[in-house]
Structure formats: C-alpha cells, structure tokens
TrEMBL record:
Keywords: Metal-binding, Zinc, Zinc-finger. It comes from Lactuca sativa (Garden lettuce). InterPro entries: MULE_transposase_dom, Znf_PMZ, Znf_SWIM. GO terms for molecular function: zinc ion binding. The keyword Zinc applies. It holds the Pfam family SWIM. This is SWIM-type domain-containing protein. Residues 323-355 form the SWIM-type domain.
C-alpha cells in the first residue's frame, strides 16, 4: 500500500506523463512569450492513423545564447544522460566554462534515444543559436560516443574535437589492469610538447605493444595536450563540466517532462543571479579560482633559473630542461601558457624575476569584467 501511495502521490502533485506531453506546446509558447529571443523547438512522430507522438524538445534561452561569446571560453562540452521517469528518455545538454572555470549551461534537449539523428538535430539548432558556423576557432569536448563523434565531424568539420580522457582511462583499465598503464596514459595526456608525448608512448610500447596500439587508435590528437590548439584558454582533457551538470540535476531527472524542464530553468536563473552577486565587488581583478591556479603554479619556481636574453625574452632552465619565453608575445616553448591562458611555471618565474605582477599577464578572459558579461 505504501509503494502504491508513493507512486500515486507525485502524480497528484505534478500530473501524469500523458498530461505533461499534452501541455508541451503551451509550455513552449509560454517560453517564447516570456523570454523573447529564446529558441524552443518541438519535434513529433506522425503515425499513419494521424496521431502525433512526442519525439524531441529543445530549448535555448535568450540570455545565455547572447552572453556566452563575451563571458565564456571558446570550448563547449556535449553530453547526454538518462532520465529516470516511466518513459526512458535522454537529456542532451551543452555546458560552457565561464571566466572562473565554473559550469555555464547554455541549452538542453529531451530526446527519446541518443542516436546520430537526434544529435544532428540538436547540433543543427545549437549551431544556429551560437553562430558556430563550421566550428573554426572553437573546441568541443565529449565522451567517446560514436554517433556524437560522427555528427560533430559532419556538422562542424573545422572544430577541435577533444575526447574525455577520463572515459578513455576507464576503458583502458578494463582491458589492461595495472597502475603502470594508467600512470603512463595520464603522463601522455598532460604533456604539452609532441616530443614528450612520443617519449611517454614509447615507454608504453616497450611495456605492452597492444596497449600502445589501443591508445594510438583512439587518436591522440583528441586527448593529449601536446596536440591541443592554442587560444582557447582551456587545457582541459576531461569533460568534467558536463558530468558536474548531470550530477546537479540528478533529482530533476526523476520528474515528469515539464516539471524537469522548469527545474532546469529555475536552477539556471538562480545560478546566474548568485554568481552575478558574487562578482559585483571584484572590480577588474582575476577570478578567485584562477588566482588559486596561479598560486599553485608558483610553488615550483625554486626549481628554475631565469636567464634574460632580451628586454622581454628569457631562457628558463630547470635541472634537465630549458625553455624559451617571450613575455611580450606571452608565449613559452612548453606551450602550456598558450593553452591555458594563465601561465606556466616558466612564465611565472620570468615575471617574478622582473618583479612584475603575475596577474597582469593572465588572459583577459579570466578577469571579473569578462565574468560579469556572462
């Protein structure tokens, strides 16, 4: 009796799935009226008998759509998660990183199944809303879902597509047990120079040629920093931002369709307001999370010697390595500065050697003014 009551109570509060599907057209129209400029699309399957059945629902609110280019990085995370209701559907979502390295959801869609057709439909609408064109100058990070990889390749041929290293690591662990395999894999992931990557992979090839071939088949250009394109202000190898969003909405995913969509909307609205309040008093400083990253990098300064070779050019030498650095161009031969936009231990060593402010060399993407634009 308690089980039946627990099952019946939510229907009294939120209504049944049938009622929610019947109200989707009205819900979509209400979003268009109350949030001018927002994109809402509904797709149905038409049966031979004339009946219509729900297929897909997409929503992208106007404010995130406008502000993401000025206040967020040029990298988006794509992911899908299962919904927990009676009808087994999936939620596709796109999540950005703001100037403080925090998640910034942009758009989401409810679909019946995660297949190539639905991903193409979702990406088509997303490309129109965000103006991605063919993807030139942008990066996408996702898991290893084959249909998603194919859809991105067809619709965004010039985008840099990164695969989540965490997923690759988990699959590697299933096939090749042992701490050595995982240690070498993450070492190959984190290096920023192609030569260092080849050295790491050579170590794996000596240990186990089949494991080496397995990772080579996964296309290292999608999961190693050594091949990532500069200028994105993000050196992330994992799709943690999408996974974090999926965890936040885990309770909402148990609700009927409209209730779930409303909880997502309210979560986004409240989150933007709270983040805006926190950022009001920061002025033009860099964001707190970025400052913590810079302070963590500073801990390795004692291992390097700085030798000036020009007004803004330096050679930074460690115990076994040396790197060329240009403060004016904001480049280091280790490539990490160009990838993350914050700096590397070599750049911070040279900046400290010149008694200059480290934060003034952090990319403008990470300042509070950019943060407030989002």
């Amino acid at each position: 009796m308690l089980v039946r009551a627990k099952k019946y109570a939510p229907q009294l509060i939120d209504g049944t799935q049938v009622e929610h599907y019947a109200k989707l057209w009205s819900y979509a129209e209400e979003i268009r009226i109350s949030n001018l400029g927002s994109t809402v699309k509904i797709d149905v399957n038409r049966m031979p008998d004339g009946k219509k059945y729900f297929s897909k629902f997409y929503v992208c609110f106007d404010t995130p759509k406008k502000e993401w280019k000025e206040g967020c990085k040029k990298i988006i995370g794509l992911d899908g998660c299962f919904l927990k209701g009676i009808c087994k559907r999936e939620l596709l979502c796109v999540v950005e990183r703001d100037a403080n390295n925090e998640i910034y959801p942009i758009a989401w869609a409810v679909v019946c199944v995660e297949n190539k057709e639905n991903w193409r439909w979702f990406l088509d609408l997303l490309i129109d809303d965000l103006g991605l064109n063919l993807g030139y100058g942008y990066s996408v990070i996702s898991d290893q879902h084959k249909v998603l990889i194919k859809a991105v390749k067809e619709l965004l041929p010039y985008v840099e597509h990164r695969q989540c290293a965490k997923h690759i690591s988990q699959n590697l662990r299933k096939m090749y047990s042992g701490a050595q395999y995982e240690s070498i894999f993450w070492k190959a992931c984190k290096v920023t120079i192609e030569v260092d990557f080849k050295v790491s992979m050579k170590e794996l090839e000596v240990l186990d040629p089949s494991a080496y071939q397995y990772l080579i088949d996964k296309d290292p250009k999608t999961w190693s920093r050594a091949y990532f394109q500069p200028g994105r202000c993000c050196d992330a190898m994992e799709n943690g931002m999408s996974e974090s969003f999926n965890v936040v909405i885990v309770d909402a995913r148990k609700n009927p369709t409209i209730t779930m969509l409303e909880e997502l909307r309210m979560y986004m609205m409240e989150r933007v307001f709270n983040k805006k309040c926190k950022g009001l008093g920061r002025g033009n400083q860099i964001c707190p999370t970025i400052r913590e990253i810079a302070n963590e990098i500073k801990k390795g300064l004692r291992h390097y010697q700085v030798l000036p070779s020009g007004l803004n050019q330096f050679e930074v030498r460690g115990t076994t390595d040396a790197y060329e650095l240009d403060l004016e161009e904001r480049t280091c031969s280790c490539r990490l500065w160009q990838l993350n936009g914050i700096g590397c231990v070599h750049s911070i060593a040279a900046i400290s050697f010149m008694n200059r402010d480290v934060e003034s060399y952090v990319d403008k993407m990470f300042c509070s003014i950019t943060y407030m634009k989002a």
